[in-house]
Amino acid sequence: MTIQPHEINNIKIAEIISDNMIVQSVQDGLDLMGNIYYQGFDKVILYEKNITPEFFDLKTKIAGEILQKFSNYRIGLAIVGNFDKYGSKSMKDFIFESNKTGHVIFVEVLEEALEQLSK
To answer: Has this prediction a pTM greater than 0.90?
Structure first.
């Protein structure tokens, strides 16, 4: 795992780059958040390919638990990927609501993540 730092408008953003699965459980999400926080970053960019597919099945509750932790600790999170393949209405609604609040966002490209997180 590599952390690519970005700083925009005095906001430190960590882009997580890896060929491996980074978040497979709620504990993995907490560990990542703690690691990022202690390195002085304000926000995180994570790629869909680095998150277990179970995250995108809301019945597992993994997404809700992880995103709640990021919200509670006020660490912004952008997940970059193509979410059209997750056809369930509940997942589409979840993404829509997350994007509306703006603390945890789902975007298609890195540039959009950087733009949204730097506000």
So the answer is: yes
